Amino acid sequence: MIEGAKWRRWVFFYIPMAFFLLFLLFPFYWMVITSVRPDGELYRPWNSINYNPFWTWKPTWDHVRLLFEETLFASWLWNTMFIALASTVISLICGVFAGYALSRLNFPFAGSLGTGIFITYLVPQTLLFIPLAEIIRNYRLGDTPWSLILTYPTFLIPFCTWLMMGYFKAVPKELEECARIDGASRWQAMIYIIIPVAIPGILSAGIFAFTLSWNEFIYALVFLSSPEQKTVPVGVISELIRGDVFYWGPLMAGALLGSIPVAIAYSFFVEHYVAGLTGSVKG
Amino acid sequence: MAVSAVTTTLGDTPPPRRQRLLEDERWLAFVLLVPTMVLLGMFIAYPFVRGIMLSVTSSRVGVPGDFVGLANYYKIWNDGIFRTAVYNTFLYTGVTTVFKLSLGLWLAMLLNHHFRGKAFTRAFILLPFIIPTVLSTFAWKWMFDPTFSVINWCLFQLGAITGRINWLGDPDLAMASIMVVNIWRGVPFFAISLLAGLQTISPELNEAAAIDGAKPWQRFWYITWPLLLPVTMVVVLFSVIQTFADFQIVYVMTGGGPANATHLFATYAYQIGIGTGLLSEGAAISLAMFPILLLVVIVQLLYIRRVETR
Known about the structure:
The structure holds two protein chains of two kinds. By secondary structure, chain A is mainly α.
């Protein structure tokens, strides 16, 4: 804690901290309040009298109801969940294997392969989405969940590999050698000895990959076209905005409900998530 | 092709030989790397080559097009909107990175103190980073709404304004609003990464310097900052790449408007390539990002190598 007089603590800690919390969390409060506020209150100009934007005495479920009854929100949630889980599992399997090979095995070109994977880690989705859309169409994957399940690993695998390399490097060689002396094959030593030791790393990579794929937007926007195939972010954009008309109540309710699964997953694994985040940067 | 060759040789031979193959480090490494290589090859390397090929043709949606050389690049070079987009992208990346770094570092140093509810605060602070960007950006768009803006309401109540401010209707204000959202989303990432870096610095160094009479800012400048620099560099370069190629925030907030004044590379490429269907020109616009991204990646690789060999 900050030493010295009490006012110093306020000026150098509490006030800046409160400022940060307000700035970072206010939009979420605003999302919550908008999603339960009746339309009559929502669309009152900001300068009308007796207007209190921060509270409502007449909360309503209308917006949520509209979301589930008049749009395909439930299918969007399910699609997003399925795509995020499937691409996370694929990326974890690939990332664990590749990370193991690159950190613990000697083979030609190991260094340059590692660098290559690191570079693909830095390729943003927006660089390749146009040719990729064509390729997806040629493979006849357009408008199916597989177009995303197969392309999301391209930005998840490099990160998983990179994170797992860090974890595998920390496991002492002796552990593996002991198992090999006891008659285990290389494959068995990897599956039964090394991978279990790296479970915290796998959890971190998994939770981070899950939030990243839940967050992805441009591929989903370009590759999916029919309403029942869409993910939450794309569905909300395309079905709750008609021309210039924004259905703000349902939009905010959708934004809130679409964030809850990822927020829950995150809250269970905060420590692993932070480890994944900092590990993904430090390498 | 490589996949099928491997699986058939593995499947046709009796188990002992397969095991012997997997005992060879090189074979095991190869087998373990195949899935990664296939996916990255199919969906990164191949699209990259396709993108370059596409950008030198005159393809549209449904029309294969002919080879036209560098005509698309020449066309975008003389395109006023493209030039605005380039300028915007550099401005956007530069300004937001400075703010994200300074605010993130400040927040990290606040979080580095011991206080009640620290774990809780840290968990909540990351929310802007984990909540899907498109969804949280909608909350911001609603806050910046010309007629129902809560920001206008607050400023009005404080007596700062008398008329409304049309946040997303004026090019400069729209750009500033977009930057605010990007900073909002990026600060948690900087703060948590830099906090991890700060925690590796031994408090004894600061205490020793304090005993020797160093003032707080001297301690920051001569001890904390140099020790934090490697982490800072990596975080900044990483963030620069993400920001430079950003799409979601601008797409939701303004869609590139008003009058195409707030486009970035990615949103303009989307508008041309997908919106109007000029695939080849769109591909050329997004590939125009590549030299700059490559430069950042090279700096990052060189820096990591330097730190590792030291």
